[in-house]
Amino acid sequence: MDESDARNIRNICILAHVDHGKTTLADHLIASSGDGELLKPRLAGKVRYMDYLDEEQRRAITMKSSSISLRYKDYSLNLIDSPGHMDFCSEVSTAARLSDGALVLVDAVEGVHIQTHAVLRQAWIEKLTPCLVLNKIDRLICELRLSPMEAYTRLIRIVHEVNGIVSRHSLYKTEEMDESDARNIRNICILAHVDHGKTTLADHLIASSGDGELLKPRLAGKVRYMDYLDEEQRRAITMKSSSISLRYKDYSLNLIDSPGHMDFCSEVSTAARLSDGALVLVDAVEGVHIQTHAVLRQAWIEKLTPCLVLNKIDRLICELRLSPMEAYTRLIRIVHEVNGIVSAYKSEKYLSDVDSILASPSGEITDESLELLEDDEEVTFQPQKGNVVFVCALDGWGFGVSEFANFYASKLGAKADTLQKSLWGPRYYIPKTKMIVGKKSLSAGSKTKPMFVQFVLDPLWQVYEAALDPGGDRAVLEKVIKSFNLIIPQRELQNKDPKNLLQSVMSRWLPLSDAVLSMAVKHLPDPISAQAYRIPRLVPERKVIGGNEVDSSVLAEAELVRRSIEACDSSRDSPCVVFVSKMFAIPMKMIPQGGDHRERMNGLNDDDSKSESDECFLAFARIFSGVLRAGQRVFVISALYDPLKGESSQKYIQEAELHSIYLMMGQGLKPVNEVKAGNVVAIRGLGPYISKSATLSSTRNCWPLASMEFQVSPTLRVAIEPSDPSDMSALMKGLRLLNRADPFVEITVSARGEHVLAAAGEVHLERCIKDLTDRFARVNIEVSSPLVSYRETIEGDGSNLLESLRSLSLNASDYVEKRTPNGRCVIRVHVMKLPHSLTKLLDESTDLLGDIIGGKGSHSIKILESQSPSLEENVDPVEALKSQLVEAGVSSSSETENDREKCKAEWAKLLKRIWALGPREKGPNILFAPDGKRICEDGSILVRGSPHVSQRLGFTEDSTETPPDSALYSEALTLESSIVSGFQLATASGPLCDEPMWGLAFTIESHLAEDSETEKQPENFGIFTGQVMTAVKDACRAAVLQTNPRIVEAMYFCELNTAPEYLGPMYAVLSRRRARVLKEEMQEGSSLFTVHAYVPVSESFGFAEELRKGTSGGASALMVLSHWEMLEEDPFFVPKTEEEIEEFGDGASVLPNTARKLINAVRRRKGLHVEEKVVQHATKQRTLARKV
Asked: Where would I find the Tr-type G domain in this sequence (predicted)?
């Protein structure tokens, strides 16, 4: 056959939804070929020639793909008929693979259906050329009885809808993408407090994209499309961050929905890292809450550009019944409060969310202060700039100031830009003069309303009153419909439910998606712009100080990778860098199994799939540079990897092959072959290599991207075990999978061999246990009562630092002395309490201290910018920490100015003697090196130690003292590590209940004497060093016991909201939980009360449930870990004075105080000795009935 013959061949398949007429069309084509030799024309459409199976004839549906060769003029046609039923979609794939073109049938009456989407997608995958056949035109005439114009409108709509489907499938092409495409990408996360409307807003944005292909507009807000887990639907809260790819005009948006509950704040961190901008939602009624502070801080840490969305505006009208002026005042207050939070974080005024909440102003805002505020260019959120919108997500409407400015510009004869600047703040329109003036230009007693009230809120209130009030004026609605040319179906206008009518009008007058998405594409940055200013946070700049062993080529390539990330280079020859923020598990049945991806997976020996059973682990990732392709081999880099260390750092890098890449569509996945920089994707094949997060790179010489910062740490710990001991291996496997699937959970094994699971809170723990039981382990699990962590310290607040420093001298009498069993070494320990500010600083800087003290090997890497964003760029974190340590030591002192200077001088000397920190070499306890004579009067030698930490921090120079050449001096040097080890052991387990110590400073003086001849014996097994270690540990613990020990417990900051009638029951619950109320205030414009309190973590379990029961569901609470607080009660209190004996009894009948109860509970759990009476009330016999 020559080429001319091949050009006359057409391979065609017929694709359509079921019952849209494929086989009938095939019948007529067969009858027209061969002069009716195969099929008589009068039988066409009745015989169903291609359905020759009995089952097909009986059911009247096609169940297989079959082919027939036909002739038309000089052409040879291979016609393949395919099924339309979803159950036989594999037959469509086989037909499409053998064809070059497709006839896509659509019923003119029924329109586009689900299988129409599927066959169009299959045609796009197989790169077929489609033609559209609109079938059953006669039904428009005979059944629907449409006029020609109505039929024309219907046909236009169907063609437009099919074209939209094809264009969306062609969105993610695999050919090269230039820079202009990256400029049209927006990566956005939605952040808010719980129940402020994030998922409802996401529903409406999804419904507006793709003409309702993913979600019908009438179901938006009810389906909760992004909450596809059963537990999320049951609890009606979001529990994970999930992404979906949307289209808006020429822009591609990766929208990430995140949880608002404090227990899932880690998911907010993962969403923020992959985004460039954030939509921050605030409820217009409830206002700013605790999680609002947290998400604004997270956006600031990750250098995201935020936009503000004020949601639930309708509640101001329908529930609170506010006037437009009162609503305007409320909205101004919320915008002002959010701006205050952002400016406070920018100025680094507050270190934590709780501090910012407690310091937030509650006063009124004056017009003068507002005018100054609105003119300040540094203010983040300003409606007149366009980065604030006002919405009602439930009803699907929203607007920015620009929408009304454009509408009124022609009516008022003003420029839209000028009007937009005036539609917010104290600006007033004078109708007589047609001028816009400020507050000062108004005449005294003028009742002129601000322009935002007059031109924006008043019309909204009128529409709501006309629709919802029984005697409302429907002419207002008709005027709005006519003025804006709104097309509303007649059946919706005649709806008897006024709420539905109002929703129909408002959603078409002020579409929510247009207001939010237009703001997003205009005010949120594209990946190229965003990565340029986010690069100090993503990859902090490093420079090498000293060390000639560094390979300059490695350093140059690492810097090239950093510049590629900064430029968001999407060329094929640039290094590919991807950050995986979390791993998430989905059922294997949800993985797409079509096209090239199915072939790739079938040919794979996937060890990960074998280990996962029915669960498949995908990586939630963002491409920061280069091109990512399916099947590509990449390096998986952990956070500890250092490319300059060579072989010693190889354990932190692995090589892996990417199996598949997907674009995330909420609960669905769309497979792609390659994706360019700037996009958010899901990656399959990394399960065995990543447990939490990692960096992927096409080159070894790449710095890992900075680790994510979580707002809280997992504090709720429980011990778990299988109900049946034989299921232990299944539980172990389930724990490994859970640890991989949850970015925040921690799995450890305690000293007693228990498997301990740490979660963020009760809701998070319940979800983890459910996932273990139902998905990962699939065994019954026994869960212990919560294991609460405590700390141990001594009495005092550390404010009188000068007196403590003076008493720190070892010449003082209040020290503890211990001697080793062989008598050669005498240990003297003195302990003092550190100021609270210094303890808090050491605790919050543990990661940085660990990096500084641990060192960087043969060469030193200096990070020019700390992981936390700073107001100043290129701040040296070591220098910043040094200055903070100096200030924190004396900031809380209560002495006079003269004593303060002395205290500062003494503290500066002491900072040069820091030997070690503990526990784990980076905790909030300090070991000072002794400052005494090397040789004592009795001939013994003082083990001086070395100020190792002071040298690392730069408080003192690294000077090495040359000791005399003697065996005793050499032995003293070897004992230094034993003393430090004893200090670490002591601070890791205190004397009260083996919990870590908190905020203590120790000075340890060890005197080593010569060994007598009679006792001299070879030291082969380190017996003496072990004796010194034990003696130091015992001496430190005894010193704490001698100086009035106290227990320190973790505290939650609790925010409660309740109606006035439930205040009493709420306070009763708080008092039973040992809570300390901080403040109580009524929310402006509502009858609800907001109460702030501190609740001990040990008393928080079951608190929310008890609160709901006690207040009949009328009160709600949210808690976030705040700080550590010392319990003032003495655990060893015994009445001694007459007053104490009179109040508490003679000692025999004194009930254990709270501190002693907590200590005994921990000791009992750990199997330690507990001093308690075995026999109670031994003086009186008690019967079982207790009647005497």
From this structure: 7-188, 183-420
Q: Are 777 and 721 in contact (CB under 8 A)?
A: no
Q: Which two tokens stand for residue 825?
A: 């070494």
Q: Per DSSP, which regions of 733-789 are E strands? A: 746-749, 755-759, 781-783
For the record, the structure tokens of 353 come out as: 């969310």
Which of the 8 DSSP states describes residue 787?
B
SS3 of 1178, please?
coil
Cα Rg of the chain (Å, integer) = 36
Amino acid at 69: S
CA dihedral 582, 585, 590, 593 (to 10 degrees): 70
DSSP states along 482-513:
HHTT----HHHHT-S-HHHHHHHHHHHHSBHH
Which one-letter DSSP state was computed for residue 374?
H
Q: Residue 284 has which token pair? A: 């217009």
> Which of 554, 566, 586, 908 is closest to 741 using CA atoms?
586
Helices 498-509 and 474-483 cross at an angle (nearest 10°) of: 20
Between CA 262 and CA 273, with CA 268 as vertex, the angle to 5 degrees is: 155
Helix (H, G, I), strand (E, B) or coil at 1162: helix
| The three-state (H, E, C) secondary structure of 420-465, written as one string | HHHCCCCEEEECCCCEEEEHHHCCCCCCCCEHHHHHHHHHHHHHHH
Element (H, E) at 586: strand 577-587
3-state secondary structure of 866: coil
Residue 1096 CA: distances (Å) to CA of 358, 712, 794, 837? 18, 16, 19, 20
**Edge-to-edge strand list for the sheet holding 781-783:** 746-749, 755-759, 716-722, 781-783
Return all residues near 388 (Cβ < 8 A) that are at least 6 apart: 307, 308, 309, 310, 335, 381, 382, 400, 401
- In tens, the pLDDT along 173-220 reads 433 334 447 888 999 999 998 888 888 898 888 888 766 677 887 788
Residue 322: C-alpha distances to residues 226, 284, 401, 474, 1083 (Å): 33, 12, 20, 22, 14
Alpha carbon dihedral 246, 249, 250, 256, in 10-degree steps, equals: -20
For every residue of 197-266, DSSP letters joined together read SHHHHHHHHHHHTTTTTSS-GGGTTTS-TT--SHHHHHHTS--S-EEEEEEETTEEEEEEE---SGGGHH
| Three-point CA angle 881, 883, 889, nearest 5° | 100
For tokens 């206008």, name the residue: 493
**Maximal C-alpha separation, the chain:** 127
**pTM check: above 0.85:** no
> Which parts of the chain sit beneath pLDDT 50?
1, 171-180, 362-375, 595, 597-612, 810, 855-874, 1013-1016, 1018, 1020-1021, 1188
Beta strands 542-545; 816-819: pairing state: unpaired
The predicted-structure confidence for 1073-1091, as pLDDT tens digits, reads as follows 889 998 888 877 667 788 8
Q: How do strand 305-311 and strand 825-833 relate by DSSP bridges?
A: unpaired
Are the CB atoms for 650 and 674 separated by under 8 Å? no
Question: Do residues 1045 and 997 touch, judged by C-beta distance below 8 A?
Answer: no
Amino acid, single-letter form, for residue 1188: V
CB 66 within 8 A of CB 50: yes
- Within the chain, how many helices (H) and strands (E) appear? 43, 41
Q: What span, in angstroms and rounded, lies between the C-alpha atoms of 335 and 338?
A: 5
* 3-state secondary structure at position 711: coil
What the block records as the tokens of 988 is 């890791």
**CA dist 275 → 61, 187, 268, 745 (Å):** 48, 5, 11, 23
Other Cβ atoms within 10 Å of 306 Cβ, number: 22
